[in-house]
Amino acid sequence: MLSGRLGLEKARIPHLDRHGLVWFDRGRLEVEDGCLRFVTAGGGELAAGDYQIPHQAISIVLLGPGSSVTHDALRLLARHGCALAAIGEGAVRFYTAPPLLPDSSAVARAQVAAWADPARRMEVARAMYALRFGEIVRTRDIDVLRGQEGARIKQSYALAAQRFGVSWHGRRYDRANPEAGDLPNQAINHAATAMSSAAAVAVAAVGAIPQLGFIHEDSGQSFVLDIADLHRHDLVLEIAFGAARDALKTHDPIERIVRRRAAQLFRQKSVIPLMIDRIKSLLAVDAQGKDAQAKDAQAEDAQAKDDERAKDDLRAEDDG
Predict the structure, then answer these.
(1) Has domain 106-282 been given CATH number 1.20.120.920?
(2) pLDDT tens digit string along 163-210?
(3) What ranges do the domains of the chain cover?
(4) Is 87 left (phi over 0), alpha (psi -120 to 50) or beta?
(5) For residue 86, what is the enclosing H or E element?
(6) Residue 56 CB neighbour total at 10 angstroms
(7) Is 268 exposed, middle or buried (0-12, 13-18, 19+ CB in 10 A)?
(8) Which strand ranges, in their side-by-side order, compose the sheet holding 49-53?
(9) Which residues, 6+ apart, have CB-to-CB distance to 259 below 8 Å?
(10) Which CATH class name applies to 5-91?
């Protein structure tokens, strides 16, 4: 992994300031020493050679026929927000199809309807805090809710540190230098990243809109962060402080321990299926779906009756 990669989210070049796209064909897109490279024997638009790609400064890589891509290359492109598309010769065909979304827009429509209505948006935010705190929250002021969250999470840090026997001196995180913190703080950073990845899978699986958050607002992944935070008080801290305790014993890299521990708990506790269920519950998608089905059934019955009446009228005219 790249050193200090947790800080790369803020180090990205905005897409408006990037240089567009690059085209490659008949070669292999891979990573070597942390650099994205395209290796080709020639035969296409490029002469044979090994080309280093400035992935931080481009918006999309277009791969033509005869090309392949490694998992490391996909990871690096995703980390820097650079898209990848498979195309036909001269871009006469577009083969890439991400994201592969569900065949229903029910979740997206429910999310937009709730997000666009200030009262409903606040209710969803309150429901999210209720899930996190384990109790009904009284206030309807988002700033007050965030203040309550800050106080509770500080207490949660201290309790988790005590439970796992880890020394805790407070939450400290320098985004410009993410590895500057002590072991527990680094573990929390990595655990939060893992939880956000799980939430991104859940959001994509139901076809929700990542940008439309109910508590988070500015990020392009606001709704993903909302869903990830539903597990911030329990799973994130369990992963982080458990990993910090293990790292003190084994001296293994803290990120490796966090990722291994997170993957194990995600499977054991069915975290992503739980997230999917919570998204549907928060947006009342199941109830809306049933209502819609009932309305459709009623409409079909009404149409059938109208059709029968029309047929009766025609028969009456013929008999007359």
Answers:
(1) yes
(2) 999 999 888 877 666 666 789 999 999 999 899 988 988 888 788 999
(3) 5-91, 106-282
(4) beta
(5) strand 83-86
(6) 16
(7) exposed
(8) 49-53, 35-40, 27-32, 68-69
(9) 190, 194
(10) alpha beta
